[in-house]
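Researcher: Let's do a round of design. I'm pasting the structure tokens now; please hold your answer until I've finished.
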């Protein structure tokens, strides 16, 4: 049965008291760890909704993070694509540390401070979450451990250096595929050793309750700002809002501002090298319901129910599951989920760099690739498309240039 979507009561009803979005979400944990998660939930409800906490977080957002980030009209790219559509960018790449991740990391760090924790720990894939959490730890005077797969450490050397410079300890993960899923496994194991003094700051809208809700709530600032800014710029709402989806934090952030509006919402999953198992990380497109890392959602899995290997050119998207709220929004039909492959993401990466002077993260390039596809497929349809540019591409430059050069083989003539 298709679950109902009611915009009037959405945020008060989702998730329910047990942390579920219909059948998705919840806590699939050992009793001892479930008790700890309930303590975090209670602390969040008690502390994070107080006027004092909110005032301090707003001050951090404004004076430390540099919020609000602007909405930018990509006029030259829109013109070169032809047709009647217009692309706008929510510039989360201009948020301090270069991505949306700091929005929830500063919230989690502030929560840890109020709870009396001594250390923040987390996983990271592309390194943006790791940098953001290391930044939060430095700001609040806390210790910080970041678990990161060896494959991603090699791909994301600039972010690894930034984490270490900020005082974090980067812990290489050497088992399995040595990417994001294994980094989460490693971090959970470390958290179980000392849940009293540490706070596991999950890097997306995944994991056991309350983390999908908590991260979404801290990321809602993106959608709230974007909606106000877009109306101020154009006098109307965007026709389409799009964002990349791995775990899904940036997408939930911007979608949250438009759930009750007559806008199409498009989530873009990584198709990687194609639909063959192990060549992509498109959980909702090719997965089915399953449990991973303490929550129930769409999951890429084998016949035995074990997580399948995943791949994406974007390290922050190579995760075999997706946030439970995205699974719910998929089933209700409120959000449409589609894919972009590596080549499409690379074209978007180079196009925005060459045409607008903005180097995007490979993760964000998936959402931009989808916006470019919409412009090309329906050139006579006048639409405004708002893309969440969730991060900047400094972290990807060395890898992209070494593997793919400077873009001449990926840009069609009209975009050069």
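Researcher: That's everything. Go ahead.
Model: Designed sequence:
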């Amino acid at each position: 049965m298709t679950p109902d979507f009611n915009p009037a009561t959405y945020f008060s009803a989702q998730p329910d008291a047990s942390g579920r979005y219909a059948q998705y979400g919840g806590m699939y944990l050992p009793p001892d760890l479930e008790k700890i998660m309930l303590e975090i939930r209670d602390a969040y409800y008690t502390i994070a909704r107080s006027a004092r906490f909110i005032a301090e977080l707003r001050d951090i957002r404004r004076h430390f993070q540099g919020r609000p980030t602007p909405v930018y009209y990509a006029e030259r790219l829109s013109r070169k694509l032809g047709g009647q559509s217009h692309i706008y960018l929510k510039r989360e790449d201009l948020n301090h540390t270069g991505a949306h991740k700091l929005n929830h990391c500063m919230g989690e760090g502030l929560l840890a401070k109020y709870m009396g924790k001594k250390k923040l720990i987390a996983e990271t894939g592309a390194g943006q979450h790791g940098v953001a959490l290391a930044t939060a730890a430095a700001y609040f005077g806390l210790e910080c451990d970041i678990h990161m797969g060896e494959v991603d450490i090699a791909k994301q050397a600039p972010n690894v250096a930034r984490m270490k410079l900020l005082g974090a300890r980067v812990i290489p993960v050497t088992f399995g595929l040595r990417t994001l899923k294994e980094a989460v496994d490693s971090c959970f194991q470390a958290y179980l050793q000392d849940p009293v003094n540490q706070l596991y700051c999950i890097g997306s809208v995944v994991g056991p309750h309350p983390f999908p809700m908590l991260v979404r709530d801290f990321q809602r600032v993106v959608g709230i700002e974007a909606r106000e800014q877009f109306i101020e710029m154009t006098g109307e709402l965007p026709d389409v809002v799009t964002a990349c989806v791995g775990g899904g934090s940036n997408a939930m952030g911007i979608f949250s501002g438009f759930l009750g509006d007559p806008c199409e919402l498009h989530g873009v999953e990584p198709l990687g090298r194609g639909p063959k198992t192990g060549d992509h990380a498109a959980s909702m497109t090719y997965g089915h319901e399953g449990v991973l890392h303490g929550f129930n959602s769409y999951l890429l899995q084998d016949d035995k129910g074990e997580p399948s290997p995943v791949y994406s050119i974007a390290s922050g998207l190579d995760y075999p599951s997706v946030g439970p709220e995205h699974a719910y929004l998929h089933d209700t039909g409120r959000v449409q989920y589609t894919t972009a492959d590596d080549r499409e993401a690379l074209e978007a990466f180079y196009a925005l760099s060459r045409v607008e002077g903005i180097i995007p993260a490979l993760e964000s390039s998936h959402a931009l690739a989808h916006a470019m596809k919409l412009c090309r497929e329906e050139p006579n349809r006048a639409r405004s498309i708002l893309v969440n540019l969730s991060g900047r591409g400094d972290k990807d430059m060395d890898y992209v240039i070494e593997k793919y050069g400077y873009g001449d083989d990926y840009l069609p003539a009209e975009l050069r």
